[in-house]
Amino acid sequence: MKAAGAGVIGLQASGSVSGGLIRHAAASAEEETHKLLMKGTLNFKGFTAKEITPNDEFYVTSYSSSVPRIDENKFRLKVAGLVEKPYDLGMNDLREMADKREFVTLECIGNPVGGNAIGNALWEGVTLNKIIKKAAPGKGVVKTVFNAEDGYIDSIPFEHSLSEDVFLAFKMNGEPLPPDHGFPLRAIVPGIYGMKNVKWISKIELVNRDYKGYWEKKGWSDTAVIPVKSQILMPMDGKKIPPGPYVVGGVAYAGRHGIGRVQVSLDDGDTWKDAEIKEPLSKWAWVLWRFEWAPAKEGTYAITVRGIDKAGKVQEKGAFFSTTFPDGAKGYHSVNVKVGAL
Fold first, then answer.
1. Which fold has domain 229-339?
2. What is the 3-state secondary structure (H, E, C) of 87-142?
3. 294 versus 21: which is more confidently predicted?
């Protein structure tokens, strides 16, 4: 899966009260971050995958056909609407306010079951709550509206925008946001489909009405909550594998609750067996999972996966002809493989 992108990372930083050592420690932490992000493929006990999606492999979907070219030295983020103190910020102001660094998995609402419009990255920026509170919101605010430089507009509930988990990002995997991913500033709203994670944000407006964005006006979900999902990455559909032990693996994601279990079926869902899951990089990141399989005989097999979140909700099976409209794809992911001599 192209979007299931690059190597595991664990970030640690240490410092000293000595000014010289603090500068040295900060530089070392940045160097270590870069090295870890560039490590590439992770081997999780025989299942190889990219736990962090490289920037150039991360999926791209956009409202317009052109990418805005923005001069960050002239860029200003406006905060307006039902606020007592409207104001604007430049990129240097935002960098000075930086307080957030989080692994977050994003997915397009149009991504089909088993599709590649999903990825996981390390995002850095400023908590939206901090930016909103500085403007002194008035009474009766219903939605926080994001206005993008390409003309796209979307919104999230005002109360949700005050969550410590929602932020504006200006870095992706240790680098400034690539143009395709919203340079110089984008929203990161964990657990919500990508259309709410607006790119190229230039204005935040607080409004007293239930504002509907471009896609919502076309009938797509306004809440856009990502349900429990799981996917098989190894083996790929149609692959021929040799007899004997084989490691099946993939990713799973459950948004706000996180993945509690992943299960695999080899008999069209009649029975399920637990897979092993790796500790995620954050509460908002997907998990890698693996399952040791030893087919009893040669032949054709269907491998199916499902996830269960930490609240006990089992992934929806979905309909046979399920579509992504209006609130994202639902259903189990399956692959067909043939076991036999290569």
1. Immunoglobulin-like (2.60.40)
2. EEECHHHHHHCCCEEEEEEEECCCCCCCCCCEEEEEEEEEEHHHHHHHCCECCCCC
3. 294
